[in-house]
Every structure is written in C-alpha cells, then in structure tokens.
Amino acid sequence: MTRCNTALALALAAMPLSLGAGTEDWLPSSATLTGSETDPPGRYGVASGVWDGVEVPFEEIVGERDRTTFRLPNEPGAITDLINSLSQRMQNDGYELLLSCRDRSCGGFDFRNRLAVLPLPMMFVDLGEFRYLSARLGGPDGESLISFLASASGDVLFVQEDHIFPLATATQPAAPEPETAPASSEAAKDATVEEDTAVDEATVAEETLENVPEDASDLAEQFAARGETVLEGISFPSGSTALPAQDYPALQALAVFLQTTPDVTIALVGHTDNTGSLDSNVSVSRRRAQAVADRLISEYGVSPGRLSVHGIGYLAPRADNRSEAGQELNRRVTAVLLPS
After folding, report:
1. pTM of the prediction?
2. Sheet-wide strand order for 96-102
3. What are the residue ranges in the chain where pLDDT is below 50?
C-alpha cells in the first residue's frame, strides 16, 4: 500500500470534483481529490450521536458505501466555514441532519476510533481539530446516509465524504465513465453475488491446492518481499471495466493464498492509463478492482469480508503511458496485503 500511496501523494493535482449523487458542488473548487473507495453491498452507517462513555450510536442501512477524500487549503476559520456550508447545503437539498460535532464534543479519540477513515496520505485526523457532520435523505428506493469528516493540519484541510446508498440504488447500472470510449452497460454494472451461486471457499481450495499454476506459485513470496503483487494476466481494454469469462491463474493463486492464510485480508487496487480526467479514471479503476473481487467471490468462494476495493486511476503507473504497450500494462489490478 505504501508504494501506491506515495505515488498518489506525488501525483495529486487540482481538478473538478465528482462527489456522490446530488453533492457535486458541495465542496469549493479549490478541493483536490486524494482517494476513493467503494465497499461491497453490506450494512453501513454514519455516526448519529457522540461518544457516551460506552459507544457511539450509528444510523445504519443495507447498501453500498462510497468513501472519497479531498484536500483543501487551510486558513483561519476554514474548517468552520466548510462545515457550516455543508450543513446548509444538506438542508437545502432535503437532508435531515443527524449529528454535527467537533473534536472534544464528539468524544475525541473514542469517537474517531469508531469511524472508518481512509489512511494517509488520503486522509488525516488531528484529534484536537476535527469536525463531523452526518445526515439522512429519504427517497423512492429507500434511505441514503451521508457524512463529512474534516480535519486541519498546518496549511492543509483534509475531508472525507462517506455516502451510503440503499441497495436498490447501489446495484443500478452506473453511467459509463470512459478512458477513451464508453464502457458497455454490462461493464458499468456493480455486480452483486447471490448466496446460492457462491462457491464454498474450502471446497475450491481443496480442488486447486495441488494445481497452482507455476507462473503464479511465488505469490506468497511476492507478498513477503513487497507486500503487494500485480495480478498478471488481467488487463482491460481502454475504457472497459468488464473482466472476460476465462481462466486467470493469478486469481486462482490468490484464492489459494487466502484459503491457506486465513488471518489476512487483501486490498484490490485498480489502475488505468492516463487518458481522460482523474475523477473518471478513479471511478473506472475502482470498478476494475470490483470486477476482480466479484470473480474471486463468485468463482473461488472468497469471503467478501476479506477483500476491500480501491481505485487510484492513473496515479501509480508501472510503465510509460506514452506508448500503447505501456498504457495496456497500466490498465491492471494489484493485490495489496493489509496488516492484520
């Protein structure tokens, strides 16, 4: 993860924002996108109350969670102005405010420790200067939840937006966000896995442990040496997020690795070439990682809880984007070993 995060920090540039549905212009134009993550369908929530000495109350729904982080220039009063502006925009757009608090009044470390916060350099929280804001919005498909966490550090203001969509909304086909050409509607779908089609992880491992492809048999050594590995043999046409139906030795090897090391979790990180805007490429890369996660779950029985999905667009190239061959190499998914 360190290598990707370093590349991310070095490559950030100012850009138009693309937040959750209905929040496109809630942050000022000076905000810079620093990270994005989509979690698979599950039960997620936002804090609806402060730390009471025992727990932090959460409002939860079953849906899909998008987490996006930004940086803004910090100056005196910036964090207060931002939260006041976001609060007003929420109310103007029909959201019902659940919680607005700051550092000590939220509960300090105990409150912060119960939030799912993306790591540095995407997000940073100063326990002495952070603000939290959450709200809900009813709709025809169910209730949506949203929260903003903002924290100042020197001349930088960090912001994380969590947007939780009801499952009926989350599984709708997303609008194509191409690199060079529109992706098909099939490629843009956020796939869901039915329980009755999932393959039992232990059964799959028994069938594959003795037949791990030779070109992927050193995956464990790669994790031990570097903490990450490129899933070789998995490449995407420009603009596409669809994973063709074929055998992928790297996925087979990763599934076996997960079965034989049950205490580890993996981050799947999608990448793109440098054609197009950063925000569209971040979305495309995240969908590529999700396509790999879906295949691991549906065909190899990997538990969804052992995978997280991320996308960093073109911020961590492995090859020169000035050639077609280099661009093809950059359209990939990497597996990053997460700390236990």
Report:
1. 0.48
2. 96-102, 130-137, 144-153, 156-166, 58-73, 32-47, 307-311, 265-270, 333-338, 228-230
3. 1-21, 169-216
